[in-house]
Amino acid sequence: MTYITTASGIPVADNQNSITAGPRGPLLLQDFHLIEKLQHFNRERIPERVVHAKGSGAYGTFTVTHDITRFSKAKIFASVGKQTPVFLRFSTVGGEKGSADTERDPRGFALRFYTEDGNWDLVGNNTPTFFIKDGIKFPDFIHTQKRDPQSNLKSAQMMWDFWSRAPESLHQVTILFSDRGTPDGYRHMDGFGSHTYSLIDTKGGRVWVKWHFKTKQGIRNLSATEALRLAGADPDYAQRDLFNAIDSGDFPCWSVEIQVMTDAQRVEWENRTGWDAFDLTKVWPQGDFPRQPVGVLELNRNPANYHAEVEQAAFSPSNIVPGMGYSPDKMLQARLFAYHDAQLYRIGANHQHLSVNQPRCPFHHQQRDGAMAIENGGAAQNYDPVQSGLPASDGFGHGDAGWELGGAAGRYETRVDDDYYTQAGNLYRLLGGDAKRNLVENIGGSLSQADPAVQDRQIAHFMKADPSYGNGVAAAIRELQEKRDR
Length: 486
Fold this sequence. Notes:
Elements: H1 32-42, E1 55-64, E2 83-92, E3 107-115, E4 118-125, H2 138-145, H3 156-164, H4 170-176, E5 191-192, E6 197-200, E7 206-215, H5 224-233, H6 237-247, E8 253-261, H7 263-273, E9 292-301, H8 306-311, E10 324-325, H9 330-346, H10 422-430, H11 433-447, H12 452-465, H13 467-485
Antiparallel strand pairs: 1-2, 1-9, 2-3, 3-4, 5-7, 6-7, 6-10, 7-8, 8-9
């Protein structure tokens, strides 16, 4: 028979009644079991993520199906058929922890590979682009997605004022307000690494890559009406769908693919198009850089405890393994710092000691002490001596050869004479008639809540992407205003 104990393992005589001075009290401070329960209850919540606060997670496997060892020495890709355990956390981006799963929002797609050379975290979204391309604007942008400081309400005025002054956001805004902005759960959407990363081969050669995860369940989206209905009827719709599917043995899968660009191709492509290969607001056209298959991702095990394994999961794109590298993408560079720093604040200095964050391979470092130092390195030496005369990189460790830098240090304006409109217009023209109509109606419903100056500024961007895009949004706003005036 299992009996109740304190956290220190001491058997509890009575878990139903407090110790009191007489039948009617007051309580006695000596009732440590009562005090411990209340103290822990008051501390049960850790700070929620500033973004990606509400999420769902599952474990699974990544299986290599195609040989890419010519691009990367990473052991995870060493042979066809090789399997690596993974953990994947899906999320909405802007909403709080109690928000609805079906809100119009990008979806986080944060994937951890537990490799024999440490954890590789590929922290992306269900979109290949983003709203901004420089991390210095990230806090400003996210503030517009949160709550007005006076009313504490979500504000379409704040959102559209920001977007209308940041035309580089147009591509992502088009994705967000299309049917893809309300995916039907997490199983029926694609994932993307979004940023440009790199792969390093055995000789130190580099190629630039973008990661794609194509759902094998087929793309399914919710209409704006159905998403709104589910937000009230079942705000945990995506969580429920994912958990129940895995629990019943219907394991969701994605094909894992990459786009590859050599540096010589990058120079030629940038000169030809005028686009920056590292700009997060742009995609690499698949006609120029076709997707190449790598493997299959399968989710096949639900966490046993949500808080321990999903809420405390701590990802960072800075976690790469030998055979991989970063890129000059300014948003990626900012995230390399910000994500790990967020986990230090949210969970603590030793968050990597937690099971979901701990590497599955042997590890050794000199980090010691701090809160929740579970093993704390034991008796091992807590410093690394100064050594000289060590050989150059022998391929062990990251082995990133780096990339050539040029120019003086300074703040450079990258929005001058940039092309914000071609890719957004191309995406609009790819949509079918119903999808176009849904897009302009979704935008019209939101943009109509902003003031006329913001509306005019934003519609001007749509017009430059495609005149029928701008005219469609303007007509949707007029129709809504006429209904309100009746």
